[in-house]
Amino acid sequence: MGNEIRYDGKVVVVTGAGGGLGRAYALYFAERGASVVVNDLGGSFKGEGNDTRAADVVVEEIKKKGGKAVANYDSVEYGEKIIETAVKAFGSVHILINNAGILRDISFKNMKDADWDLITKVHIEGSYKCAKAAWPIFRKQKYGRIINTASAAGLFGSFGQTNYSAAKLAMVGFTETLAKEGAKYNIVSNVIAPIAASRMTETVMPPELLAALKPDFVVPLVGYLVSDANKTENGAIFEVGGGHVAKLRWERSSGALLKCDDSLTASAVLARWAEATDFKNPQYPEGPNDFLGLLEQAKNLPRNAQGPEVSFKDKVVLV
Ligand code: NAI
């Protein structure tokens, strides 16, 4: 274990650190020299109730092993109070792990506004509030590391989780923009879609799978990404769990370029559909399309050929 990465002198805030993945992160950083703020509201996995014991137990566990930790019991919606705890106890914050989360699984048909609002509040607003409060400190000290937590549900969709999926994919856009804005201040942000056994997943996964998916198997990637050993990844998306670490990126088909005149109809798009959706020669973009280049290429295109008729007869359209 001689090459173990350490975090001496670093202050780490882990939200939702009273259990599951958050607890594993908190123990990891504390064991490797960091001062840790163990934040947890201590509610149910559906976001009901609160209990200070969730955070207290983890703080005790860290202290017993000789580590440095303080508890914070605020909801991540009040991120400024969590960051204030870090500054009061340890003088700063260097690493923020936005991990707290809840579920309100229900089919879209039966979803209530309250199910939607609570999920977006905890995941999106919570991550925003914590990052927003840490940001001026990160900028001033020219050092900051953020991990945001997405989910396979956000990347691929998941039955009964429209609220959670929407909130989790928001973490990707949030991270990618933080990465761009933070780069010149040495603020590095990445996003993970973890999979791990926790109270969140114990009712939906079989026992043999749960045994293979310990939170401890997610932690090392996060430990690496926020360490000074990471010189390459900023704004990146990772899937991680059960010993598997994989990076995700966008893929764009090479696409079809159509003439922009009155021949650019739905039927003309249909005529070029195979080309528009052909991934044989893909691009792996890190930004929007180069429209100036496309405009140049499009200058001498002929009028578009028309495909089969596209009709909206008898349809009512709301725009
Ligand atoms: P967990 O339920 O074991 O832990 C989440 C912790 O967050 C709990 O201790 C809870 O009290 C705390 N929390 C909830 N709302 C809070 C709030 N408003 N303020 C402060 N703390 C709050 O769940 P788990 O599995 O450890 O999840 C951690 C993160 O990973 C979540 O963001 C979750 O959505 C995400 N995730 C987990 C997956 C898994 O396979 N376990 C899969 C994909 C994403």
Automatic annotation (TrEMBL):
<protein>
    <recommendedName>
        <fullName>Peroxisomal hydratase-dehydrogenase-epimerase</fullName>
    </recommendedName>
</protein>
<comment type="function">
    <text>Second trifunctional enzyme acting on the beta-oxidation pathway for fatty acids, possessing hydratase-dehydrogenase-epimerase activities. Converts trans-2-enoyl-CoA via D-3-hydroxyacyl-CoA to 3-ketoacyl-CoA.</text>
</comment>
<comment type="subunit">
    <text>Monomer.</text>
</comment>
<comment type="similarity">
    <text>Belongs to the short-chain dehydrogenases/reductases (SDR) family.</text>
</comment>
